[in-house]
Amino acid sequence: MELLPIAEINVDPSKIKEVEQIMKSTFRLITYSRQHLADDLLNTYLTSTTNLQELLSIKNAQMEAQDDEEAKAYVALLNETLLFVANEIKNQVDFNDQVQLFQLFRLISPESHASHPNSYRKTLVQIGNYLCPDPKEIAGLVSELFYNLNTIKNPVIRAIYFHHELIRIHPFIDGNGRTTRIAKNWILMYNLYPPIFIRDEKEKSSYVSTLSNSFALLDRQPKRWNDALSAFFDQELDRLRFNSLLVYNSVKQIGETRQNEQ
């Protein structure tokens, strides 16, 4: 396997700019609103973000679990992991190295980590028709991925690129999806974007098929941008835009409600 070169990334800049504008507008409301106290807006922003984090846990669990009991167990682990991430962000720690990747893996998949502590998978894994890299390649690929990650300036592109490529490497025997999606959201939340997640079964099906198509095309034409990659980035940006608007509208509504009451 060869990683997608950073120079190949070809994302619609208008979509990223729109999300950036939504979040800037949210923080302008919090800072400069004359309709009500900034504390009110800040509390609303924090509540909205917390609600999205709770949804993130539930939706991620639904993606992975086979039944309700397993989903409850996943939610507990995901909540603990998100608390860890929130504390790291509070302490000004961004996601950027393999130690943090193993920290997430240990928290989200404690049983798998206990079986293979601080080590990548040692067996071949296949996702549908896609054969993941040989275990001997994993350490080098993950190191290269983090090197690439730290050269991408835009945090949104950085998060989505990491998501795509780490899933493609599939470094762990279990818990790859959960670990990857939390890492992606660590990058986003550190940079003051809301977390994103798959909302329903239709999105889940599209997410899985788009990744599968992208992996197949990259197998045939390594290191080349393709239509499925464009679709994956667009889908992730649409999810980020959706949640950014949820936060913005929650904050904006307070000001409008109070203004109408005057």
Task: Describe the protein's architecture and organization.
This protein is mainly α and 262 residues long. It has one domain: Orthogonal Bundle (Fic-like fold). Helices cover 71% and strands 2% of the residues. It is built from ten helices and two strands; from the N terminus they run H-H-H-H-H-E-E-H-H-H-H-H.
On the 0 to 100 scale, the average pLDDT is 89
How much beta, percentage-wise?
A: under 5%
**Structural class, from helix and strand content?**
mainly alpha
**CATH superfamily caption:** Fido-like domain
Largest sheet: 2 strands, antiparallel
**Number of individual domains:** 1
For this structure, what is the CATH class?
Mainly Alpha
Radius of gyration, in Å, reads 19 Å
* CATH architectural label: Orthogonal Bundle
Order of helices and strands: HHHHHEEHHHHH
| Strand neighbour order, sheet with most strands | 1-2
Query: Could you say which overall geometry the principal axes of the C-alpha atoms support?
Result: globular
Topology-level CATH name: Fic-like fold
Terminal Cα separation, in Å? 63 Å
Helix content: over 70%
- Could you name the ranges where pLDDT drops below 50 across 5 or more consecutive residues? none
Count of DSSP-assigned helices: 10
Kindly state the number of beta strands. 2
